[in-house]
């Protein structure tokens, strides 16, 4: 029988975690300009790509004044500053590729970067929270939130493909919003013993997971594999577990010893961490340690949300206890859709990393670097790893397999009822997109 939540057991809410009802983990309405005092940063950040191609970014940054961060007053100002300083840092380190990296980030960049990072609880390196969540604007403020109407605030080498990579990833985040909003319904339903509410919320989550997979499929239309592998990837790479920078990077004016930070990774998105904690997915020691470390690359409030979800009563245990066919089917459908999303991610990684890497090795072995120059000049240090430093294919397959472990035995009829009763995902995704079109920022 369902019960009510007592005063000492307050309903779970997203409010304390700075999660938007409309945008989820995406930063709503990112700023496009900083206060005039910080124009020297923006003058360089907005032209990083051209300066890299002209081999002059490092010299421009060395001439940049050392600015005080105390005039950055709002969260959005700090996020734009972190994005701008992050893009400058990645360009400074990788301007000449993997064979001519630097050992030290100059103090006029390192000191403000460190202080802004400390204020946000983010590391001083380009993260998913920067490049994706806080790096967008609408071309037409009154137009839809879609690929044709979205633009990057700052960019890196890679042309249309780098825009496509970040924007498609942004749309995956957007597709997850209905699932994020349903998480409190699941948690509160479990606390109250309300199986009907939990079933409905789980069906919403599984539909959103399918929408995430559909959004991820856009990667094939907007990103060229040879450009991603040969040009973009190095600028997402960090100085931890990277043989090109085995000693890490010294942040001048912060400490004399070099520091190591992982590059941008899909594992830095809070989405799958939330789903894993909700469904009770447990990862093996090495994979689990990497995923836990990636939480330090998220905004602190989002990291706290994941931690707090993990402290709630077991959803899987509740489903087993209730022994409801429809509830079990809804839970299992979430597991199935999460596995499908992870399997499709493996497919994407294969096309954009594994296949180009094999081609690059073949060209090098033949002494032929001109036939497919873009692929050939990819960094060799990243052939077997992700930009976050993990052994990417084995990692992704292990994570997917651990997802399967939480599956519950299910009557085929119950799964059929759950599937038939679910709203078609395309309608769900379109409804959310239509709602966003009516919002101006």
Automatic annotation (TrEMBL):
Entry-linked InterPro entries: Indolamine_dOase, Trp/Indoleamine_2_3_dOase-like
GO biological process: 'de novo' NAD+ biosynthetic process from L-tryptophan; immune system process; L-tryptophan catabolic process to kynurenine
SUPFAM superfamilies: Indolic compounds 2,3-dioxygenase-like
Annotated Gene Ontology cellular component terms: cytoplasm
GTP-binding among keywords: no
GO molecular function, one term: heme binding
Keywords: Dioxygenase, Heme, Immunity, Iron, Metal-binding, Oxidoreductase, Tryptophan catabolism
Region (Disordered): 362-389, 413-441
Domain of life the protein comes from: Eukaryota
Binding, heme b: 345
Compositional bias of kind Polar residues: 363-373, 415-441
Stored Gene3D superfamilies: 1.20.58.480
UniProt similarity note: Belongs to the indoleamine 2,3-dioxygenase family.
Name of the protein this chain belongs to: Indoleamine 2,3-dioxygenase 2-like isoform X1
